[in-house]
């Protein structure tokens, strides 16, 4: 079965129409040539934008000189009501200090500590999934939110506060997709910003809920009664350079981004992975067989080779964060073309993952490619679901463990089948989602669990 791909726009459109298409969906707003081009320049009366697929440029921006290509203030402004000064939007010294405090909590040994909570969330997901024709994106969101709450605050999604945060986020998103046009595109300041009515109030409600959870945790840490979870680890860590810890307000900013970046993305990947397994029953059976003997230990994950390759292949075909944006701060030469300061640089995990000059059979689902030698070079140049360099996703290791575990547990407990006439169409909002959800027929397997 063919892997869904958004229909590209015609080659030539006016920039105004381009912006309208872009607002609707950044994936179908792009022309087909971007799957072959190394670079593309977009000119509008207000800004220049360069999509860079050339691996040399991607490395330059993300790894070699990341300080010269910061995130733009627009992104921060667009997300500020919800995320404040979170690590996702800050730059420079502030960002560096925040990463020094956060990163240790996600390192290898510490990641192992989160495994029991992840396992419990996966068991709860298996118990929650019902048989019949099911919209699995919604289910995946629930499961991924549960993982975050259990690992961060040691509470399941059924907890009153956790459920309130989850529902408030959903309401927020329905009102205001997080990556709105104004946040992404440097339009002039006199154009309306696009905050819909009630957005700020919804953001304030979410922050109030998270503030209560964070303040309670600060009190538990002070009293010596706090559980040893991610929130505690981050809150007790002092910056090795300045000795500072996060205050409650700054921690709230980080919790908001962990929740947002950590559950929307993982849910998107899990939803697409389930569809891909449903569309490839022979692979699904092999994943179920591999998972059959799994034991609840962190080290068991490393033996799930096929499941991991399925998850990697999913992230190649449906990277949850389809594009990332940076800004030039000094004159640059991109592939011999002069680029002025203030230009927008777009890096596209979406196009890189399906790039015709990087991958063989770029639109095909083939987990076995991950065992082949040629994939090493392609993956280095074209597999960017977690970004790269110092600003790489903090949760990359966490997300790989979570994704593989959930997929394995679900595949061994259930059989997933595609539903005729319901081929999901990918669209990008905050993450890559299916236009009308991902619908699958779910049947419980007999006896395995
Ligand atoms: C499949 C799941 C995930 C994917 C595909 C993903 C992808 C990404 C990408 C592409 C970025 C870079 C964005 C940019 O630079 O513009 C990012 C940043 C980030 N992610 Fe993830 N992510 C995932 C899961 C998680 C999880 C589980 C967490 C936390 C628990 C997390 C926390 C973060 C944070 C804090 C940042 C900001 C890092 C910084 O700017 O320094 N992510 N993620």
TrEMBL record:
InterPro entries: Cyt_P450 (IPR001128), Cyt_P450_E_grp-I (IPR002401), Cyt_P450_sf (IPR036396), Cytochrome_P450_Monoox (IPR050196)
One Pfam family named in its UniProt record: p450
UniProt keyword list: Heme, Iron, Metal-binding, Monooxygenase, Oxidoreductase
Gene3D superfamilies with a match to the protein in the record: Cytochrome P450
Family assignment from sequence similarity: Belongs to the cytochrome P450 family.
PANTHER family xref list: BIFUNCTIONAL ALBAFLAVENONE MONOOXYGENASE_TERPENE SYNTHASE (PTHR24291:SF50), CYTOCHROME P450 FAMILY 4 (PTHR24291)
Name of the protein this chain belongs to: Cytochrome P450
Species, as recorded: Paragemmobacter ruber
């Amino acid at each position: 079965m063919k892997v869904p791909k958004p229909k590209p726009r015609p080659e030539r459109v006016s920039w105004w129409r381009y912006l309208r298409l872009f607002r609707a969906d950044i994936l179908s707003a792009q022309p087909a040539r971007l799957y072959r081009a190394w670079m593309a320049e977009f000119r509008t009366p207000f800004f220049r934008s360069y999509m860079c697929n050339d691996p040399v440029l991607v490395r330059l921006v993300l790894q070699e000189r990341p300080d010269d290509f910061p995130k733009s203030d627009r992104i921060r402004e667009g997300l500020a009501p919800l995320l404040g000064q979170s690590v996702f939007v800050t730059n420079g010294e502030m960002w560096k200090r925040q990463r020094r405090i956060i990163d240790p909590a996600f390192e290898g040994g510490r990641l192992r500590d989160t495994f029991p909570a992840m396992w419990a969330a996966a068991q709860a997901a298996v118990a929650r999934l019902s048989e019949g024709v099911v919209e699995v994106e919604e289910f995946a969101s629930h499961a991924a939110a549960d993982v975050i709450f259990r690992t961060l605050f040691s509470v399941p999604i059924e907890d009153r506060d956790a459920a309130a945060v989850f529902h408030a986020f959903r309401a927020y998103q329905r009102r205001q997709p997080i990556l709105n046009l104004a946040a992404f595109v440097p339009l002039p300041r006199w154009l309306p910003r696009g905050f819909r009515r009630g957005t700020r109030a919804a953001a304030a409600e979410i922050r109030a809920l998270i503030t209560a959870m964070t303040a309670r945790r600060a009190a538990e840490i002070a009293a010596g009664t706090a559980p040893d979870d991610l929130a505690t680890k981050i809150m007790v860590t002092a910056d090795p350079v300045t000795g500072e810890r996060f205050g409650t307000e700054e921690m709230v900013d980080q919790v908001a981004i962990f929740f947002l970046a950590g559950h929307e993305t993982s849910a998107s990947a899990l939803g697409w992975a389930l569809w891909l397994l449903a569309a490839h029953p022979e692979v699904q059976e092999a994943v179920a067989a591999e998972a059959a003997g799994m034991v609840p230990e962190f080290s068991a994950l490393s033996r799930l080779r096929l499941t991991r390759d399925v998850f990697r292949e999913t992230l190649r075909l449906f990277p949850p964060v389809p594009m990332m944006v940076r800004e030039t701060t000094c004159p640059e030469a991109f592939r011999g073309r002069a680029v002025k300061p203030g230009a927008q640089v777009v890096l596209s995990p979406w196009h890189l993952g399906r790039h015709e000059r990087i991958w063989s059979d770029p639109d095909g689902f083939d987990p076995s490619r991950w065992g082949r030698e040629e994939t090493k070079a392609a993956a280095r140049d074209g597999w960017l679901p977690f970004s790269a360099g110092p600003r790489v996703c903090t949760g990359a290791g966490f997300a790989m463990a979570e994704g593989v575990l959930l997929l394995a547990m679900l595949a061994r407990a259930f059989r997933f089948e595609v539903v005729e006439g319901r081929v999901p169409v990918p669209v990008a909002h905050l993450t890559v989602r299916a236009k009308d959800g991902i619908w699958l027929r779910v049947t419980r397997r007999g006896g395995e669990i």
